Give the backbone structure.
Amino acid sequence: MELLIGNEKVFLDFLDSITKKDRVAILSHTDCDGVSSAVILEQILNAKKIKPVLIELLNYDKYMLEKMAPKLRSLNISKVFVCDLALDNDNLDLFETFRKEFNTLLIDHHPPHPDLKNKQNILKAISLSETGDCTTMIVYELGKKLFNYKKWTWLVCAATIADFYFKNPKTLKFIKKIYPGTDADKIFESKPGKFASAIDFSLIYYKEKGKSLLGVFNLVKKKDIKSLELCRKTIQKKIDAGIKDYLANAEFYPEKNLYFYYNSSVGAESSAIIASIISNKYHPDKTIILLKASSNPGFIRINLRNQKGDVDTNLLVKKGIIGLEHASGGGHSKASGGQILQKDVDKFRANILAA
């Protein structure tokens, strides 16, 4: 595993700096990689007899740190692990303010902010799926000497597949060692691929039901595949319906080789998975932009995909939100996301087409 920022010593030194007086929190993303990295990190901490006071799964939000700070203060949190959240990428100033107050270790695989200067206590893997690693793999590899790592290889495989890092030959070799006969062209039909889908779809199910996402976190910890699979089957019907509607109604802009789809009905929780499926299965050589109404009133969730790699969606979404109030966006070169106000959909489209 190759890190763009940081090394094993940064990880181990931060762990060793935790005293009995410290109160520890884990903040992680609400997808398979986020849940998986948090689960494995908790195992590592437990092996060192450290029990986190707080584990929180967060949606991307430009102001998520600002919103979390009062809760962390109320719990007297002194050490914070942040996994799979591109805190530096979207709001560098808030990130710097946050880590002045809270001793923070950021473990992530999104591109770093170009103005990031203070790289202390940051671990970043290469973002590209063909050469990089997901956050779960970072935590697993850096901490494997500290815990019963063999018990969790199934989860590492699921997370790498969910975030498409199986395209990295080294990662695919790792997966095949655990699951011989895995076919990269049919990877989501493989055993770890089904685990990945079950976790991601369960998160959608819990969000839509208004249930705590720690429920999914606990199911993953127990490897309760049966319960996760029940959630997946319920959500699969909505995913299939969303794909069907996209294929019928997406607008194609040939001058940009781009499909643009907007649906004002609420359904943002499943939109990222729908965008990924469409981009890989139906339009692997085109840019996909999918917009769905968010459960956050007045906002629209954005998802961009480009599997061919000829358009950097991280840069494209940032161009799309220029001049839009309360907008945020970022991610990877082949997959990114964000949110805008519903009133700004036409402005966002115009910015994209002018980019």
